[in-house]
Amino acid sequence: MPSDKSALSTALSYAYLPDFAEYLRSQKLREYVETQLTIARELDIPLLKKFLHLSEEELIDYSMKVSYEFISFLAANDSATFLQNSLLDWKRNQIEFVEQSDIGLNDIFLISRMRKKTFLQFIKDYTDDISLVYSILEEMDDFFYTFDQEATKTYIELIQEKVLEDKYFRDKLVETSPGFYYLFDTVNDRQIHTTDKLFRYLGYPESEFNGNDRFFKTLIHPDDIQYADEYVNTFKMMEDSDVHFFEYRIRAFDGSYRWMRNYESAFKRNDDHLVSEIIGVAFDITKERQITDKLLRHEEELLDAQEIAKMGSFTWDLITDQSTRTKQTESILELNENEKFETFMHRIHPLDKEYVSNAIKKAMTGDGRFDCEYRYVVGGHEKIILGKGIVKFENGMAVQMKGTVMDVTDKYMLINKLRNSEELYKQAQALNKIGNWSWNMEDSRFDYSDELIRIFCLENIREHILYDHYMERIHPDDKTSLLQLLRSHFQDKNLKDYYFRIQTTEGVEKIIYGQSQPVLNEDSRTYRIIGTCQDVTEQKMLEKSLFNKTIQLERSNESLQQFAYISSHDLKEPLRKIAVFSDKLMSLFDTGVNVQAKETLQRIIQSTTRMQRIIDEILSLSKITGENIFTKLNPGILFREIVEAIKTDHPDIKIQVSRCPELWGNETQFRQLFINLLSNSIKFRKKDVVPFIRFSCSVPAAEELQKLKLNPENKHICISYSDNGIGFGIESEQKIFTIFHRLHSRDKYEGTGIGLAICKKIVEHHHGDISAQGI
């Protein structure tokens, strides 16, 4: 039926329905609306849920308005206008209380049915003329049929517009997204679709992919291929809600490798409900990896520096009262990982709590700087803590504090003892190269200790030293900042520490660690400043020397690894030639050749093969310490995966694996560790006995960590591995991990004698210890 207005007007012109509609409008409108609402609830029209916020009277008022408009158009025999206006309001999303997408086909048909049933309720009151009733019913059927047809047509048009809009959105999303979308066939292990962007990104022409559905797999870094294959195997059992991801390197057209991270989820399933296709998106994370690696190195350097300086850092969220801190902070304050700010405040010495609280409040309401020295009591002993911090403000509100804590107990106790004994004071100053001074602001008197004179090399004017003599020794580049710091004591009453340089008359430069504290009079004004100066030149030179040696050691380790790689490469070349020429020589011998000569050649070939294996394993051994990419892994799950792979060649092997917690480690190295152990168990199995292997994990006790000389502050996991093989003597417990050490002759058991040495190196690289028990 045509839906233009002229055609609809002709089609929807009725002889009997308008008078019936006029009867409803003029005499039965409210009764009509109430009946219609009752029928709507009986039919449970979904659209009714959009009006639940209205009261019954509000709903009737709203329905009266809508029904009046509908019946008026019918009474005026202009139902075509009503139909077109209604559909136009729907398209323009102008229906009150209802969104365009809220209306479904079920609503369309149920609303027509509701109106029709309502009309039927009132026909018997309108007339008892059967022929008139049939005529009205016939026109009603025609009207509601046309209404349903036009509404359905509009519904389909809106769906089509939505589909086109969604397609346009998806196309734009694919084009503008930083990711590369693709489909992957898990059954046939092949790429079946990818975006053009990926080719442009990697620099390859798209023609290289056509007809080569394994093209991208050939670009994966060799070290990542095994991991990628294992990862693909997890797709078959993927749940619909699962999103898997993995990271790998892929080779661009220019030969460089880019780091990628893929996110994938199930797209299609086969008849067995196994995933047959996955949809994924890949992102370039090269810069992210570079930044992450750099941040990790910086974090390690910072933690090492904090440990050396006996200083810890923290970040305290003042809104949520949550804090993060370094291990050194937890060590200094003796806090557990989950203990909060209340525990810290509880341990502050009772006489210092108010002082610390006021200092925190001042920082949060003042200039944002926290600088406070206080006593801290934990475990029955007292510490002196120097805390410093800076508060961050947002919209005038303190939201965060970042700061440091330093255990200055030793320095504090030293100064305290010096005050109690003048002789001990001088001895301690001399031993620690610490001198003290006092500057009286009122009469400019400058007092000093003997050690300060020696530090500043002022012995020749011992009796006439003034403040100016002291300041003359300050390095010109440090003098201004030092003066500003000393003057700040007029406002800041806290202890300050700092470093500066001095120059003697002989041109010798020294590095000084200084501390100063203002002394207040009865009016709480600074009238004197006291302080100490410590010659830390040797210490700083030692730190610099240690730093340089660390750099040299890192370069040396890198050079050794390069040497091992180059040496192994250079050694392999002549071995390959020996093997090749031996094979050629063997092929030249006819059947009548001397048997002993052939056996000799065979031994040469076997020896070169064994030498190549030794070189490969030495190279693996040298690479272990260079692999520092650690991730979370479960050793029990990893061990089971390796056993399942080995069972292909050794189906009779039996294992018992307990549940294991996750740990941080290099998965490739742990995989090599377990493979080496399993290979030994299979190689040294008892004849005619099924190999049985037990694998378990536990948390070691503190005394065990102490015995193994492992840091008890770190979390450790004890992995136990045992088999029912031929075993070894107690005297060989420590020898078996020595490189090239063999307990049996090569004729009886083949091997290089390096496998267990690699195991030891891997465990030590993870800051652990490995041992064996003989029988």
Please provide a written account of the structure:
The chain is of the alpha+beta class and 775 residues long. The strands form 5 sheets. A 5-stranded antiparallel β-sheet has the order 2-1-5-4-3, with helices on both faces. The protein is flat, with a radius of gyration of 43 Å.
Please, how many helices? 24
Mean pLDDT: 80
| Backbone shape | flat
Strand order of the largest sheet: 2-1-5-4-3
For the sheet with most strands, the description reads: 5 strands, antiparallel
Class based on secondary structure composition and strand pairing: alpha+beta
Strand count: 20
Helix coverage percent of residues? 40-55%
Low-confidence stretches: none
Computed CA radius of gyration, to the nearest angstrom: 43 Å
End-to-end gap: 96 Å
Beta-strand portion reads 15-25%
Give the helices and strands, then pairings.
Blueprint: H1 5-11, H2 17-27, H3 29-43, H4 56-75, H5 79-91, H6 105-126, H7 130-176, E1 180-185, E2 190-194, H8 196-202, H9 222-233, E3 244-251, E4 257-269, E5 275-284, H10 286-309, E6 311-317, E7 323-325, H11 327-333, H12 341-347, H13 353-365, E8 369-378, E9 381-394, E10 397-407, H14 409-420, H15 422-432, E11 434-440, E12 446-448, H16 450-456, H17 467-472, H18 476-487, E13 496-503, E14 509-520, E15 526-535, H19 537-588, H20 595-623, E16 631-633, H21 635-646, E17 654-657, E18 663-665, H22 667-683, E19 692-698, H23 702-707, E20 718-723, H24 755-765
Parallel strand pairs: 17-19
Antiparallel strand pairs: 1-2, 1-5, 3-4, 4-5, 6-7, 6-10, 8-9, 9-10, 11-12, 11-15, 13-14, 14-15, 16-18, 19-20
